[in-house]
Amino acid sequence: MQKLLSGNAFVFGKNVDTDQIYPGRFVEFTDVEDVAKYAMFGADPDFTKKVKKGDFIVAGTNFGCGSSREHAAITLKAVGVGAIIAESFARIFYRNAINLGVPLLICPNISKLIHMNDALSIDFQSGAISGEQGLIATAEPLSEYVLNILESGGIKSLIKHQLEVVNNA
């Protein structure tokens, strides 16, 4: 995982639920390439035509509320979202995303500070969120454990690596 990432912001409101992130009518798709086609489809059907690898989603409170389906986090990872910055996250979505290796940052009032298509840089080490004019906000720092999961590419990769270390000791 890169410690410093730059991209453009896609801003959404409060209570963006998992059906907006990945509508339930598409759960029949299991291939990641097919799943990626419908990222944020319920909130913006053209999102996948505009987003570039490394771009950010910025949102208000309770991002990822709704069902516990992993599809919502899978589709955002598959489409290449660099990070999601929100004022708060639904608990299950937060764990699903982190476990899949999608960086999430909690930052109070961020939805009032960032506008659609703002160019941003995020320093994951410090939580600094900067724009063209300099520092905008500082997100809550990620725990060492969460950073390890993200740096490993997800919880499965981390556990696999840890088991290899134990088995080779």
Which key features would you list for this structure?
alpha/beta, single chain, globular, leucine biosynthesis, Aconitase, domain 4, 169 residues, seven-stranded mixed β-sheet, 20% strand
Q: Could you walk me through the main structural features you see in this protein, from its secondary elements to its overall organization?
A:
The chain is α/β, with parallel strands linked by helices and about 170 residues long. The protein has one domain: Aconitase, domain 4 (Alpha-Beta Barrel), CATH 3.20.19. The chain has eight helices and seven strands. A seven-stranded mixed sheet has the order 4-3-2-1-5-6-7. β3, α5 and β4 form a beta-alpha-beta unit. The longest helix has 13 residues. It is globular. It starts with a strand and ends with a helix. About 35% of the residues are buried.
Helix/strand layout:
Blueprint: E1 4-11, H1 18-21, H2 32-36, H3 47-50, E2 56-59, H4 71-78, E3 83-86, H5 91-100, E4 104-106, H6 110-113, E5 119-123, E6 128-131, E7 134-138, H7 144-152, H8 155-167
Parallel strand pairs: 1-2, 2-3, 3-4
Antiparallel strand pairs: 1-5, 5-6, 6-7
GO molecular function: 3-isopropylmalate dehydratase activity
Function: Catalyzes the isomerization between 2-isopropylmalate and 3-isopropylmalate, via the formation of 2-isopropylmaleate.
Family: Belongs to the LeuD family. LeuD type 2 subfamily.
